[in-house]
Design goal:
This protein has 12 helices and 17 strands. With 418 residues, it is an alpha+beta fold. The longest helix is centred in the last third of the chain and has 17 residues, at 278-294.
Length: 418
């Protein structure tokens, strides 16, 4: 059953109805969830599609967003009015300047598991606000929220996309590691992402290596950072200066990209790394080709390597939010196995995801695995998602037992008892 609330105050009524009729409920906004938990859900789906109002406060420093707003909508509307911010996951293209997206939350209107509507802020509920900044899906439904916004500093961003063949792999990762320089990459070189993906115009048997850079500013200012990559012979190069709202679609994270698309089965694995282990990256590439040869129906899959400017993230004290990994990685490795729903392929896909994750972790001997919660599948150790510090999990578990004692919000990477 799908219910679309037309007003924020409809949501407490829906939750109370579900509770009184012993029905589970799950809130959905555009369906961009990578967790394996969601496949087990039956009950009331609360669709936030009708709650998309954005209101900029008179100060011009914050704005209110209803719970159904989504990243591209926010980018478009704010940019037109001279501002920027970002929704979506915790990481984002502006994190080098302004920190994690959750660092910019000011106030949240939240419906708790019992249907009570409350306002969460530093003044009213500092501990719950702390938890919502990194684990909020465990505690309530956010019907609207106040978020910091910022004046746009430039009118256009520069992007550059390369396509390379596999013989360049070692050189590419050596240069990417130099570029990041252990987390000291330039703030304005805000985002770069690579992928192993099939491009049958280039090869029918070997994945290409696609890589994209996004710079907040002009081509002239960006070019000095890209010279090492220009020196690697490419199959093709695509670039341009465009308004910021066009950047997601041009750099692999638009609404129509497979990772964000609907109608497909997605099996995912993810790790954090300080540097790319070049030997491991070759092993993962070879495994990718092997798996596509064995099951061509999985040819929409990709291995993704994400990097962001990290200065703004590391500038925030890790103790001030429920997000545990400010100093724990510089890159995210992410496998998404994508195919039309077919249960006969599920076991094969699950084995592939486990093999890939194991290779990434084995390539970092002596380092505890870390998982970015928005990319977690659900079978990872809870410490790898919410932190290895005992005090952090104790605090999250205590708040979970207080605000959601019956586990009503346990369908997305839940905080489980000790």
């Amino acid at each position: 059953m799908v219910v679309q609330p037309g007003r924020e105050d409809d949501i407490p009524k829906i939750v109370k109805y579900a509770n009184s009729n012993s029905l589970d409920f799950l809130t959905v906004n555009r369906g961009h969830s990578l967790s394996g938990f969601n496949g087990n859900f039956t009950g009331i789906q609360i669709s936030m599609d009708l709650l998309r109002r954005i209101t900029i406060n008179d100060s011009g420093k914050t704005a209110w967003f209803q719970g159904g707003t989504y990243d591209q909508q926010v980018i478009d509307e704010l940019f037109e009015r001279g501002y920027v911010t970002r929704l979506g996951g915790g990481h984002g293209r502006y994190q080098g300047r302004y920190g994690m997206i959750s660092d910019n939350l000011v106030t949240l209107n939240v419906v708790l598991a019992n249907g009570t509507a409350i306002t969460v802020s530093e003044r009213s509920d500092p501990d719950l606000l702390w938890a919502m900044k990194g684990a909020g899906h465990n505690f309530g439904i956010v019907t609207s929220f106040e978020l910091n916004i910022y004046p746009k500093l430039v009118d256009t961003w520069y992007y550059k996309n390369y396509v390379w063949t596999q013989d360049k792999l070692e050189t590419i990762f050596e240069e990417v590691n130099k570029f990041h320089n252990n987390g000291t990459e330039p703030v304005d070189m805000a985002y770069e992402v690579g992928a192993y993906t099939m491009d049958y115009n280039v090869s029918e048997t070997e994945a290409v290596i696609w890589w994209s850079f996004a710079y907040s500013g002009s081509q002239d200012d960006a070019q000095k950072y890209l010279i090492p990559f220009d020196n690697i012979e490419a199959v093709s190069v695509d670039d341009g200066n465009v308004p910021y709202p066009q950047i997601p679609g041009l750099t692999g994270s638009g609404l129509d990209d497979f990772v964000c698309g609907s109608g497909y089965q997605h099996m995912n694995a993810q790790v954090g790394t300080f540097v790319w282990n070049v030997t491991t990256q070759r092993q993962i590439y070879d495994l990718f080709n092997q798996k596509i040869r064995e099951q061509p129906a999985l040819n929409r899959s990709s291995i993704n390597m994400e990097g962001y400017s990290t200065a703004g993230v590391k500038a925030v004290d890790a103790k001030t939010s429920g997000f545990p990994w400010r100093d724990a990685y510089n890159h995210l490795g992410f496998l998404t196995i994508t195919y039309p729903p077919d249960s006969s392929l599920d076991e094969f896909a699950l084995e592939w995801r486990a093999q890939t994750r194991d290779l990434w972790n084995q390539g970092q001997p002596g380092r505890l695995p870390t998982t970015y919660v928005n990319y977690a599948w659900g079978d990872e150790p809870i410490e790898s998602v919410y932190g290895y510090e005992p005090w952090r999990l104790e605090k999250l578990r205590s708040l979970k037992s207080q605000y959601d004692p019956h586990g009503r919000f346990n369908y997305y990477n839940p905080i489980t008892p000790a």
